[in-house]
Amino acid sequence: MLSRELALDEARKQKEALAKIGGWRRFLFLLTASLAALAVFGFQTEGWLILGVVPAVAGAVSLGLTFLVDLSIRNGHRNVERILESLR
User: Fold this and answer.
1) pLDDT along the chain (88 residues), means of 10
2) Is 0.85 topped by the overall pTM?
3) Separation between Cα atoms, residue 48 and residue 72, nearest integer Å
4) Alpha helix (H) ranges present in 1-88?
5) Which among 80, 73, 85, 79 is positioned nearest to 19, based on CA atoms?
């Protein structure tokens, strides 16, 4: 079991890491939206392969990564809550 000071320090560090990961989530969400818009534009024009299919596939990968990062943030918040709950 961690001492109280170490547990509080660990919770603080994890909260800082979660804030950084939140920035990545925001970036991935914006990337996904941009790639989706580019894919729609590409499918409506002549460049359907380069401007349609490639951004659609990249957008799907980006969306999957967004979900993965969101899941890690939720699990990180639960972990911080458990650390703080153990101190009571």
Assistant:
1) 83 95 96 95 85 93 97 96 89
2) no
3) 35
4) 4-44, 54-86
5) 73
